[in-house]
Write a structure and sequence with these properties.
The chain has helices at about 60-80, 90-100, 105-110, 125-130; strands spanning about 10, 15-20, 30-35, 85-90, 110-115. The protein is α/β, with parallel strands linked by helices and about 130 residues long. The chain has one domain (about 10-130): Nucleotidyltransferase, domain 5. The longest helix has 21 residues, at about 60-80. It is globular.
């Protein structure tokens, strides 16, 4: 996948968010880390999930809440025109939760999704995953 200059890359899992901008070109991607927005702390994400024998602790709810907070932050950025193009790289479960909360402006800006856990990866490894997509 080609990544346009100034495109935003969000790398997310159930606990972390890392944001990057492409300061290079579409064919020579250079990712520069940028400050992440303050996220609203949520106890749970989408309605309908309740802890039970199949879900004995609140980890899943906390991860869903984090994904919902990330989606809300990116929705706000999109509405303020802080990015035109977005690539989302997220852990599989997190990606599913993010998709439930995207505003139509974010949906329109997404040029790629990579369902993979890369929050601890180096920018070089993230670039390799983008180029391979």
């Amino acid at each position: 996948m080609n990544l346009p200059t100034n495109a935003l890359v969000a790398v997310v899992d159930g606990e972390n968010l890392r944001l990057f901008r492409n300061t290079g070109t579409a064919t020579d991607v250079q990712l520069k880390g940028i400050e992440t927005p303050a996220l609203e702390e949520r106890v749970s994400g989408s309605a309908g999930r309740i802890s039970s024998d199949a879900n004995p602790d609140n980890d899943t709810q906390a991860e869903d809440g984090h994904a919902m907070s990330v989606a809300e932050a990116l929705n706000g950025w999109a509405l303020k025109n802080k990015f035109d193009k977005l690539v989302v790289i997220a852990a599989p479960k997190t990606m599913g939760e993010l998709r439930k909360h995207w505003h139509k402006e974010v949906e329109g800006a997404i040029i790629g999704e990579i369902t993979k856990t890369l929050t601890n990866a180096s920018p070089e490894d993230i670039i390799k995953s983008i180029e391979a997509a």
